[in-house]
Amino acid sequence: MNASRELCPGMTMSHNRNPAYFDPTTGVLICILNGVLAVPTTILNFLLIVSILSTPSLRKPSFVLICALAFTDFGVGILVQPLYIARKVSFLLSSFETYCFLLKTGNVAAHIICSPSFFIVTAISVDRYLAIKLRNRYHTSLTNIHILEYLAFTMVCAGCVTYSRFRAKSPKYMSIAAALLCIFLSIIVYCYLKSLKGLRAIQVQVPRRRQDGSVNGSSHQRVLQTLVMIVTCLVFCYVPFVSVIITIAVYGRSKEFMIAWEVTLTLLYLNSFLNPILHFLRVKELKQACVAVLGKSNRLHVQDERIEETYAPEVFTITNATVNEKCTG
Question: Any idea where the G-protein coupled receptors family 1 profile domain is (predicted)?
């Protein structure tokens, strides 16, 4: 491989032009990791999408957002990761014309598919916070129409981000992307921390009632643990990538920075694999819908939507109604 060759000299958008910055060993490992992740990511998110769309009781704002996120994660597994692997393989085989074509195609796919996911994840965190803060007013304040309008807005934003990416001719554009990601992460962490605080307040207000099966301390603890898992997953998958693109924006590209970029990008894709697993394991309604889709149950048995079963906003409303009754009675 000619290390002095400039990669994709006719391409005006900012990209790595120095082949020496790509480490072959890292490239092989990255291809293997993404190849292993792509298949289950696609299957799990497809199953999550079908589970929500085929279950009328799940056609509510909170689940519509989860479904939208699953669509973007599905796109990562079925399109973004395969294109990324193909691009890396073409580089390793010194097929540079194919590499340049896949670089442009992969960038379009990645920005159109992944950009909305940041908006959606942020919206989910805000949705969880509003469900606790607004309590019984939540259902009238947020509807499916509002969610669909927001999702349309995210697609417009994705188009703008993609256009800006191809207009950018310097790594400095990454500083803008990093600033946006930092804003999103700040909103996400803030909303989840406020949600945790609100849940702890509910835990104090609602006494334990173990005998009749009503809300108790352990049920609240389960929801708190779920929110902590969400925040931990987001920080683990997002923060390293944001840190690397900030570093590249400030200091420029180098072999070490490009290796870090490839590793943290794979971490970002890992989030698309973890999201459906987390939702299936922690949300009872989604687990039941999945069982029904797989043919293991003829119908759903959604009973007693208590806070111990899920962290869906509808449950928070029921819980807060219980709190209000306790406080006034």
Answer: 44-279
Question: 19-201+223-281 has which fold?
Answer: Rhopdopsin 7-helix transmembrane proteins (1.20.1070)
Q: Count of CB atoms within 10 A of residue 151's CB?
A: 18
Q: Cα separation of 153 and 159, whole Å?
A: 10
Q: How far is residue 112's CA from residue 158's CA, in Å, rounded to a whole number? A: 5
Q: How many whole angstroms separate alpha carbon 221 and alpha carbon 205?
A: 14
**Environment class of 301 (CB within 10 Å of its CB; exposed 0-12, middle 13-18, buried 19+):** exposed
Long-range contacts at 27-33 (CB < 8 A, ≥ 24 apart): 27/88, 27/91, 27/92, 27/262, 28/92, 30/88, 30/262, 30/263, 30/266, 31/85, 31/88, 31/89, 33/266
What single letter denotes the amino acid at residue 75?
Answer: G
Report which of 279, 126, 261 is spatially closest to residue 189, judged by C-alpha positions. Answer: 126
Closest by alpha carbon to 238, among 263, 193, 268?
268
Which candidate, 58, 40, 36, places its Cα nearest to that of 290? 58
Is residue 152 classed as helix, strand or coil in its secondary structure? helix
Q: The tokens of 123 are what?
A: 């919206």
Taking only the tens place, the pLDDT of each residue in 105-162 is: 888 888 888 888 888 888 888 888 887 777 777 777 778 888 888 889 888 888 887 7
Amino acid symbol at 227 = L
The pTM is what? 0.79
Of 49, 83, 42, 96, nearest to 69 by C-alpha is 49
- Backbone angle region of 254, left / alpha / beta, with phi > 0 → left and psi within -120 to 50 → alpha: beta
- pLDDT by residue (tens digit) across 148-201? 888 898 888 888 877 777 776 666 666 777 788 788 888 888 888 888 788 777
Q: Which of 91, 63, 126 is nearest to 312 (CA)?
A: 63
Q: How many whole angstroms separate alpha carbon 264 and alpha carbon 298?
A: 42
